[in-house]
Amino acid sequence: MKPNIIYIVSDDLGYADLGCYGGRDAAFGAVSPHIDALAAGGMRFTEGYANSPVCSPTRFALLTMRYQYRLRGGMEEPINSRSKGSTTLGLPPDIPTLPSLLREAGYTTALIGKWHLGYPPAFGPLRSGYDEFFGIMAGGVDYFTHCSGKGDHDLYLGEDEHHEVGYLTDVFSQRAVDHVHRQAAAARAGRPFFLSLHYTAPHWPWETRDDAHVAPEVAANLFHLDGGNVESYRRMIHHMDEGIGRLVAALREQGLLENTLIVFTSDNGGERFSDNWPLVGGKMDLTEGGIRVPWIAHWPAAVPAGSVCAQQGMTMDWSATLLDIGGGRPDPRYPLDGVSLARVLRDPAQVFERPLYWRMKHRGQRALRQGDWKYLQVDGHEYLFNLAQDARERANLMRKHPDTFQTLRQAWLDWASEVPDIPDDAAVSLGYSTQDMPQR
Predict the structure, then answer these.
(1) Can you tell me the distance from the alpha carbon of 207 to that of 171, in angstroms, rounded to the nearest whole number?
(2) Dist CA 47 CA 352 (whole Å)
(3) Distance of CA 438 to the CA centre of its chain
(4) Helix crossing, 33-40 with 230-253: angle to 10°?
(5) CA–CA distance, 277 with 282 (Å, rounded to integer)
(6) What's the pLDDT tens digit per position in 113-141?
(7) Residue 433 burial (CB < 10 Å; 0-12/13-18/19+)?
(8) Left (φ > 0), alpha (ψ -120 to 50) or beta: where does 431 sit?
(9) N or C: which end of the chain has fewer CB within 10 A?
């Protein structure tokens, strides 16, 4: 019997923000007990990556199971407000997606949460394989007013604007719980569901459940450059964790937990208040802190509890895995770049070599991870690191191992020649600079 699939994506979560990845407790206690329980009852990956160190490019790869660079919108870093009304900066409806192919395989499909892949009428979740959508189209909104940085109200039910009172993380969690209860009878009868639950937490603005008074202060600049702290950031993660706990409880109540595959990850590495230890860098960086993220899989019927896996992979591999497990078939016109990890989920010892490539217009960054080695270029400077020995990327081995450096450098160049060039008009949207805070 095909499993139900829940694909949970957090937003800007750091590698070590969760307790199960070594994160510290907050003043109020454990930050992520329910997510930690998923890891304890399933598989935790130590070397999983996002397709990009910034949000919308990763989401292009997540949906298409292909490198984001194959689509014009995927070259934005990230898609910003100029995409509203654009017919090019979004996910084209004719491109096969994970939900569209799972729907062909018999799944009902729904997205609750963040889309960030272009606006209707040219683009939208309902045009790219989802039967249902409840969430935001923009890259970020206020947690209470649900308005984007332009001041537009940005909460939708389908393609219709929808007003609802509530803290956005809790609103998404409740919708997900309700969705499970609504789909339960059909799922038990053999019609599985695929639910994408894409939180905005813990993305700025820095608002906990008790911070409605902050909304008017940040309305003109959601980057919230003069606010936030580690404690409020951890509480934002905790609110998401509580919702995930309620979702797991709903699955258990409906008798669906045993045969539901839950995947948890982040769209990129952490931002201002996150903990990426022992990694260096964060969002917008191709150093490890910008791309290595939590990867957790929980599926009692198939995934061994308490397992830890060192398989290397990136977001599009998760999506290819879900398509494989759900019995979906790739469209031969759009061959996948993602690779299924299904065999690894059943046996964490079945690891295999998986070269991973990245490219950023921002700072001219390049990266290739292959085995223990990583080739990196930033601001025209090139590096070679052995990540098994130096996860912080502090010991440049380029001159000590010139043959390895040249081999990886050429491999990156060969790969880059097979994907479209970044156009000159592709946007790099930073939001803040060293004028606002010192560099990491």
Answers:
(1) 14
(2) 13
(3) 26
(4) 50
(5) 11
(6) 999 999 999 999 999 999 999 999 999 99
(7) exposed
(8) left
(9) N
